[in-house]
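Hypothesis: this fold can be encoded by more than one sequence.
Test: take the structure tokens below, design a sequence, compare later.
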């Protein structure tokens, strides 16, 4: 199924946006336009909805609040290459973007293989980046992996094999279908705060067909993305429908989590990287939700105060008030308030100013969820203001 995505960078799915305009609560705040937002924009092959929205709006995920379908267009729920989008400012408090009345597509009819109109619309995000993650498992629990049949050997004493080779697999005594998928156990996925085990990465390796049951059974590798190794797990292939539409919308306030992993082993996270979040469907995460990535809340050293606390014995003397007070902060009295004639500050309670401070939160990027599992979810980084790292917090893009 995923093969249909490849080679069509401009003819892929788009979410139905029309119904979002009526969602309660979405229009509570005025949408901020880009200072150079175009009056008219013609959709081009290779565009994405997110990119088009970014031409008009400072916050592209708020596109559903301004999109207004034109009833004269045959299908106002989707946007296609060649159509003209017009910025309507007749109501300055509520800008709208609509498809121009004369923007209907001209279709040349000729004998050809039928292509679904769903595949002709522009995609919400770069689908090619996330396509491998849309229908494959990727996350599983430890018991499922431990109990699954596994690759035990190869013909002719080979170490690794690939497409067209046979493999021997333990304990496949019967099978309801001949299709199997081969997975490799990956790293543990844990809640960033509680360290709760949320699952394991299940790296997709290959597909295979059953040739003979038994212990070991014999399978033939029909397709592979990497070479099969001893110990790889084998389970019946699951006919999972690839997710084909996304409704970009801000994540609800109060839904927070963390980035706990990044695919492809990169250390610094940037635009269009795929990350794993420690929140899933059980926490209220849904496909299409947009999160801000926030950095801050950590303790940092106040270098100014730290420097002042270093006693310069050459310039300071016990006769100087700064020697006794310096950067001290009066916080109370040691015991009962002393007699007014008592020498000061001998009875005062004083503390040095803190040598650390808490770094304020700042948004380092924007990401959108495209695949959800019960306890984790996968998201694509749509914008990176700076390099991000595992452990950074996610929350509503409109502010925590």
């Amino acid at each position: 199924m995923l093969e249909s995505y490849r080679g069509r960078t401009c003819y892929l799915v788009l979410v139905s946006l029309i119904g979002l305009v009526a969602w309660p609560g979405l229009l509570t705040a005025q949408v901020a336009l880009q200072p150079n937002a175009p009056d008219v924009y013609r959709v081009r092959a290779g565009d994405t909805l997110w990119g088009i929205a970014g031409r008009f709006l400072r916050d592209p995920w708020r596109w559903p609040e301004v999109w207004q379908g034109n009833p004269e267009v045959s299908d106002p729920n989707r946007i296609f290459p060649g159509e003209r989008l017009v910025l309507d400012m007749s109501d300055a408090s509520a800008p709208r973007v609509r498809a121009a009345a004369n923007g209907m597509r001209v279709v040349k009819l000729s004998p050809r293989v039928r292509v679904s109109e769903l595949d002709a619309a522009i995609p919400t995000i770069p689908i090619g980046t996330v396509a491998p993650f849309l229908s494959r498992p990727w996350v599983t629990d430890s018991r499922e992996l431990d109990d699954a049949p596994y690759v035990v050997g190869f013909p002719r004493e080979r170490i690794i094999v690939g497409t067209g080779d046979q493999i021997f697999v333990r304990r496949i005594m019967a099978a309801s279908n001949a299709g199997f998928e081969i997975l490799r156990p990956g790293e543990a996925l844990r809640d960033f705060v509680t360290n709760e085990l949320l699952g394991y990465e299940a790296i997709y390796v290959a597909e295979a067909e059953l040739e003979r049951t038994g212990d070991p059974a014999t399978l033939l590798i029909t397709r592979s993305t990497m070479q099969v190794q001893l110990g790889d797990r084998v389970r019946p292939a699951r006919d999972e429908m690839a997710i084909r539409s996304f409704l970009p919308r801000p994540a609800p306030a109060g839904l927070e989590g963390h980035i706990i992993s990044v695919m492809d082993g990169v250390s610094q996270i940037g635009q269009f990287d795929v990350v794993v979040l420690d929140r899933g469907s059980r926490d209220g995460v849904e496909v299409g939700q947009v999160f801000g990535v926030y950095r801050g809340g950590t303790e940092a050293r106040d270098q100014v105060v730290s420097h002042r606390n270093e006693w310069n014995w050459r310039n300071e003397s016990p006769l100087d008030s700064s020697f006794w007070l310096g950067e001290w902060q009066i916080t109370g009295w040691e015991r009962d308030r002393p007699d007014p004639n008592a020498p000061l500050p001998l009875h005062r309670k004083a503390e040095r100013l803190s040598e650390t401070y808490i770094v304020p939160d700042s948004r380092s990027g924007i990401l959108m969820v495209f695949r959800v599992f019960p306890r984790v979810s996968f998201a694509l980084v749509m914008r990176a203001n700076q390099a991000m790292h595992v452990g950074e917090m996610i929350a509503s893009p409109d502010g925590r």
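Residues 1-28, 72-77, 103-118 have pLDDT under 50 and may be disordered. The longest strand covers residues 197-212.
Hypothesis status: open.
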